[in-house]
Specification:
By secondary structure, the protein is α/β, with parallel strands linked by helices. The protein has one domain (about 10-220): Rossmann fold (3-Layer(aba) Sandwich). It has 8 helices and 5 strands, in the order βαβααβααβααβα. It has helices at about 25-35, 50-60, 70-95, 105-115, 120-130, 145-155, 170-185, 200-225; strands at about 10-15, 40-45, 100, 140-145, 190-195. The chain has a 5-stranded parallel beta sheet with strand order 2-3-1-4-5, sandwiched between helices. The protein binds thymidine-5'-diphosphate.
Length: about 220
Amino acid sequence: MTFQTTPEIGRFITFEGGEGVGKSTQLARLAEHLRECGFEVVTTREPGGTPKAERLRNFLLSGRAAPLGPLAEAALFSAARADHVESLIAPALNRGAWVLCDRFADSTRAYQGARGGVDAKTLALLERAAVGETRPDLTIVLDLPAHEGLARAASRRDGGDEVDRFESEKPDFHEELRQAFLDIAESESERCCVIDAARSVDDVARAVRAFVHDRFLAHAAQAAQ
Ligand code: TYD
């Protein structure tokens, strides 16, 4: 199925949620589907996505930034984001590509804000400085009880991944994070959609696809008829 849509309009979709909810799997599934529909799709992740931001990722996830405190971590995540937006995301959107990003500014709001205690005004300033006008058109929040997500993340580690700075936090931390993402989704319901991630990978992928079609492609398909 190929869609006729305005070629110069890129769409920016972010995936958010706690540890082990399946963001990267679902992002890859949606990317594959959109490519089959004929779109150019750029997939990326945070922290990271550009050489400079990947250097900050290593520093942040190693835990070496943790003693500096949540405000410093928020500033470093934002510095990584600024480079990511400027060097990769904005240029891709400007040429009409769809950009799918594994985590974005909502992760800073949830991890460093709701959990880390950095106040919302400071985070809003950092966010504006980092992203400018490049805000997601749609944010998919994958929702799963924290203990299920942590169990999935642990089984993924059996494949060799190491536990990172945030995965090693206590279970309460992860339940609060889950609630923080749900609160963000509720307060920005125009932009965010919450999807129950406790179902099979195929069922979740179908739900994500249905939402994206409904939001962006239904009109294009009608116009093309
Ligand atoms: P990653 O290995 O990508 O984890 P996940 O598979 O859960 O997405 O590690 C990213 C970690 O960084 C994750 O624990 C969330 C955290 N993080 C923040 O604390 N603030 C942020 O702004 C971002 C983007 C990520």
